Every structure is written in structure tokens, then in C-alpha cells.
Amino acid sequence: MKRIIALSRVIITILIPNVCASSLSVTYYSDPPGAAILAGDKFHGYAPVTLTYVVDGKAEQQGYFMLQSPRAVWASGAKLSYPDGLKVDLHNSMIQQFTFHRPSHFPGREDDVLIGREHEMLRAQRAAEAQRAAEAQRAAEAQRVAEAQRAAEAQRAESANKQNNAFDFLILLLELQKQKAEAEVPPPMLEPPPRRIHLHCEPTSFGAFDCRE
């Protein structure tokens, strides 16, 4: 009878539509939170815990996967286990969740609730620290990018300044060469004005003229 009641507490919930993948992700929750999650002899952390399982070709063909001997143990000593494993329908989703419900007949539930709250507070604190660390890392990365951009802009400005200086020097050099060439050109030679000759001509006896200056 207890076995039937325990199996009735199995909760497999579809989270997202089916995707093609070779791994199965299962998130284990506990009620109350904070139960230790174990599979076989291995401790995987305190609920909620997400585990990834490799799905072989045989399981994909069968359409289901067996979670081997998962169990939850609360601080009060209350336990819930499934020694025969849990059957997961792979046709629904490759990302699923399962909730361990604490046996109600076992004493110490109040203590488990308080410890569960402490686990949640610690988890929230760690999440906040991780978020602050991620934000600090992003800020540092943004600062490095900005510094690299400023360095690149300064390098481009320096290169442009060198090019401008080289161009100005070339203009100055051409101007000096032009001035030197103009200075080396001799002045034009001035020709004397044409000479005017006054001739005095007298007729001769032979019908010609005798011209003298």
C-alpha cells in the first residue's frame, strides 16, 4: 500500500516542446525544499538540482528512459526513494522535472521547512553574488573594449597627424625648390635700341644718287 502511495507522488511535468537531442535534463525539486538528492551512492546537491543524462539509441527507439534509483533525504531523516527507478517519456520533452514530496507521517517537518528556507536564502545569496560577479566582469570587459577603442583612435589620430606633417613638409620643400629655381634664372638681356641713320642723297650725272651719312 505504501508503495502505491509513494508511486502516486511521482510528478513528471513537460516544460518545453520536444527537441532533437542526445541528452535528457531533469530538475529535481523537493517539498519542502532543501532535501539532499542522491542517485545510487552519489550525492548531487540540495533540491532543486538539475542533472543531465545521456540517452542511448536503444532508449530513443523505445521512447522512454529510466532514472536509476533517485532518492531524497531531508535533514530530519525523512526519505523518499524509488529503487526500481523512474520512467521518463522521451516523446514529451528532453527537459523535464520531478518533485519529491516528503512523507507526511515522518516527524520533524517543521525543522525541514526551516532548513529548506535557509537553503533557499543561501541559494539566492549565491545567485546574487554570481550576478554581481557577472556584472563586474561585463563592466571590466566594457572598460577594456573602451580603452582599446581609445587607443586605436589615438593611433589613427597620430598616424593622420604624421601624414599631415609629411604633406606639409612636401609642400614646403616644393615651394623652396620653386624659389631656388626662380632665383637661378638669369635676367633677360636688354637689346640696344635700333640706330637711326640719316642719309643725304644727291643726284649724279649718271641718273643715280650719291647717298652719304
Give the SSE map.
Blueprint: H1 2-8, E1 12-14, E2 23-31, E3 36-39, E4 42-46, E5 49-54, H2 57-62, E6 64-67, E7 70-73, E8 79-81, E9 86-89, E10 95-101, H3 109-184, E11 200-203, E12 209-212
Parallel strand pairs: 2-10
Antiparallel strand pairs: 1-10, 2-5, 3-4, 3-7, 6-9, 7-8, 11-12
Characterization of this structure:
This protein is of the alpha+beta class. The protein has a domain at 2-127. The protein is 42% helix and 27% strand. It is built from three helices and twelve strands, in the order H-E-E-E-E-E-H-E-E-E-E-E-H-E-E. It has helices at residues 2-8, 57-62, 109-184, and strands spanning 12-14, 23-31, 36-39, 42-46, 49-54, 64-67, 70-73, 79-81, 86-89, 95-101, 200-203, 209-212. The strands form four sheets. The chain has a four-stranded mixed sheet with strand order 1-10-2-5, with no helix packed on it. A four-stranded antiparallel sheet has the order 4-3-7-8, with no helix packed on it. Strand 3 and strand 4 form a beta hairpin. The longest helix is centred in the C-terminal third of the chain and has 76 residues, at 109-184. Mean pLDDT is 82; it is low at 1-19.
Spatial ordering of strands, largest sheet: 1-10-2-5
Q: Which regions are unreliable across 5 or more consecutive residues at pLDDT < 50? A: 1-19
Query: Ends: how far apart?
Result: 163 Å
Secondary structure class reads: alpha+beta
Rg over CA atoms? 51 Å
Largest sheet: 4 strands, mixed
Strand tally, please?
12
Helix content: 40-55%
Number of helices: 3
* Beta-strand residue fraction: 25-35%
Overall 3D geometry?
rod-shaped
Average pLDDT over all residues: 82
From N to C, what is the helix and strand string? HEEEEEHEEEEEHEE
